[in-house]
Design brief:
single chain; 29% strand; globular
Length: 207
């Protein structure tokens, strides 16, 4: 979740209070495509997890997943989804501006459509690099400024949208086997639906 006004968590709580999963219950397509790259049975951190679809998917693959989000309502639904799927996830309610990234604590991290203001984005991504263990991976997908022309999801504010160039700078300490901007169909619940402009990244920390 972005560093927003004090009522930001309340805004997300209101969005997630709908009985349906507003971003669906199926995992993100890019995550599914890249999941085989993750260390088997690793400790995985999911930032801005929301209602749990990606964390639950990773738990179903045998990973030990910790989901972080500013919305307690979203994470309650994440726990419910995990129970329904017969898996376990850990949850942590926190705005990312205040989350503590322990050094070399995680085998992998996922950042799926978690859009932050530029200064916070750089700080969080930098801390994330330090929190990966040697050989650890980060998987990220976000909307690019071109998404403003599609209006099929994501924040309608250009400064909250990401580019490959900005992410290359944020993750300068990692090898980047995947870093690309593309247009693809996104079908994730009612709020991410249709043709979309995205940036995708896989970063690997040196061993």
């Amino acid at each position: 979740m972005a560093e927003q006004p004090p009522d930001a968590a309340a805004q997300w709580d209101a969005r997630f209070s709908h009985p349906a999963y507003v971003y669906g219950t199926q995992p993100n397509d890019f995550l599914v495509e890249m999941a085989s790259r993750l260390p088997p049975g690793g400790r995985v951190l999911s930032l801005g997890e929301g209602e749990g679809r990606n964390a639950v998917y990773l738990a179903s693959l045998g990973h030990a997943v910790t989901a972080v989000d500013a919305s307690s309502v979203g994470l309650q639904k994440a726990k419910q989804l995990a129970d329904e799927r017969g898996v376990n996830i850990e949850t942590h309610v926190s705005d990312l501006a205040h989350f503590t990234f322990a050094p070399e604590a995680w085998d992998a991290a996922i950042v799926i459509f978690c859009h932050l203001p530029p200064a916070l984005r750089r700080r969080v991504h930098g801390a994330l690099v330090k929190s990966l263990r040697p050989g650890g991976l980060v998987l990220l997908e976000a909307y690019t400024p071109a998404q403003l022309g599609f209006r099929t999801g994501g924040p309608p504010v250009e400064e909250l949208l990401y580019t490959a160039e900005a992410l290359r700078e944020d993750f300068a300490g990692l090898e980047l086997p995947v870093l690309r901007e593309l247009t693809r169909e996104v079908r994730e619940g009612t709020l991410h639906t249709g043709r979309a402009a995205v940036v995708q990244l896989v970063g690997r920390k040196a061993t």
